[in-house]
Design brief:
Layout lengths: L1 H28 L7 H23 L8 H4 L3 H36 L11 H31 L5
Length: 157
């Protein structure tokens, strides 16, 4: 799964960079803008952003401001703090996932299209729900890992 994620994110970022390069060359050097390229770039850009957040959740490398870690000196205290943080993340994330579900139902019902190429925007909008579900799965897995660390006395990151 790690290899697939790595190649997918690399492919998406290359696609976005190449499209930007083509846009710059055609618009500013050749003075012939490609109409609709921004609309096509919407899909890989949104998916790259969302899957990047999912990847950070999978790797447990989100930026955190754990000020309490400074005051807590024991590994057990750090594990308990991590468990509390994961529970809060899970509660808020599940709440946001329900909003993402409602938004996905709305996107299906309305079925918006891009203004130039008439591409359905649903395929970029559904990324929010997919990303939230995956992030909640990884958050739950990290919570289980921290609980097991607390039981066994193992160290956490």
């Amino acid at each position: 799964m790690d290899k697939f994620t790595k190649y997918l994110l690399t492919g998406l970022i290359c696609m976005v960079a190449l499209a930007q390069f083509v846009q710059i060359v055609t618009r500013y050097l050749l003075q012939v803008p490609l109409m609709g390229l921004e609309e096509v770039m919407l899909y890989p850009t949104v998916w790259l952003y969302i899957l990047g957040a999912v990847n950070a959740s999978r790797e447990d490398t989100h930026i955190r401001a754990n000020v309490l870690e400074i005051a807590i000196n024991t590994p057990r205290g750090h594990t308990i703090l991590a468990i509390v943080g994961e529970i809060i993340s899970l509660v808020v994330g599940i709440w946001l996932t329900t909003w993402a579900w409602d938004y996905t139902l709305y996107a299906i019902r309305v079925w918006k299209e891009t203004p130039t190429l008439y591409l359905p925007t649903f395929y970029s909008e559904v990324a929010i729900l997919g990303g939230m579900v995956l992030m909640m799965i990884y958050t739950a897995l990290h919570l289980v890992r921290h609980i097991n660390d607390l039981r066994t006395g193992g160290a956490t990151k």
